[in-house]
Fold each of these.
Amino acid sequence: MSVTMAVLASGNGSNLQAMIDAIREHRLDAELRIVISDQPKAYALERAKAGKIPTALIASKERAVFEQELASQLRQSGAEWIVLAGFMRILSAPFVAAHRNRIVNIHPSLLPLFPGKDAIGQAWRAGVTETGCTVHYVDEGVDTGPIIRQTKVAIQPGDTLETLTERMHHAEHQLYVEVLRMISEGTI
Ligand code: GRF
């Protein structure tokens, strides 16, 4: 029986697309029960609909209201895992505690370096020669949870922020699918 997941996304949803593609191509044995967004215009919602995955939009700006609805949608979906993919809200400590070690996130840096927003830009401006991406469990902090797996991405002499960003996204898509596969196989 395949593992069940809910994906939370606020934006483009390219990581979600990588998951949808991997499932369709039998590279990932998982069932995406629902895609939930806080943004009505999130392209992730379109990708979910095209992939015949149920969607929910929860637009409330009030955290308690938002999380109550989120918990209800998650319960109804029956998803065992909560997969954050470009989800731009911070989940409250009680919500995280209620789903301890069941929420994963991807972040475009080699955490603990460059947490928070615009991590690719932060690394670029810092002038490092190497950055990367991290999949981690979500805890009460911002990008502080236990690290599951990382991929390094070299910053090459001819890179621009745009070429680096493109390579980073490619690395993210591969890493996230790989970690979700490990989850589905019960190896993490
Ligand atoms: C990714 O870079 C992810 O690491 C970060 O937000 C971005 C989401 O991209 N948390 P997408 O919506 O999956 O295309």
Amino acid sequence: MRTILVVEDEPQISALVRDYLEHAGFAVVSARDGEGALALARRQKPDAIVLDLGLPGIDGLDVVRAIRRDSAVPIVVLTARGDETDRVTGLELGADDYVVKPFSPKELVARVRAVLRRTEAAARPAERLGVGPLELDLARHRVTVGGRSVSLTPTEFELLATLAREPGRVFTRGQLLDAVHGFSLETYERAIDGHIKNVRRKLEEADPAGASFVRTVHGVGYALEEPGA
Ligand code: CA
């Protein structure tokens, strides 16, 4: 059974999240503050962490930073509505996804399942990646959409491959910039927007439905997924 560490200082929310996760077949351990979270993360080695960013004591973002120093455990952060800065900073520090409060517990469970799936998929090295009609051949640097080939620059290819390795994951511009480091001389995050625009245009030229796979996450970054998934 996989264990989820839930870090939340509000007892009602914590109990609700625990109920839903247990009902979904997970074992749950919980902490009410950052100190407790770090101690439990070390001792219990959970398979994933649900972490409220608004905690007493150590700030939630510092908890993410501290966990990432020695662990790649998937982290889903809970953020206050409207707090885009925390959301972006959380992702930049290495959180895998975020859910905005007030949230539906069902949605949270779905996100936890998704980060676990992605982590497991990322652990298996793949030569080919596929998202719907989109296929990437990593060894040959080839992309096809609906069987038609798309000609991308090395930077565009690397961006798309980064998104495709973890479909549905939201990447910030900063993370995408890191991913293409060594392929590009541009140093501005806004350059990512230009590359994404080119990727979309080329996918669309090959298949009119192609461009809709690259989703803009307002105020955060980009994700690759099947429309409506
Ligand atoms: Ca809180």
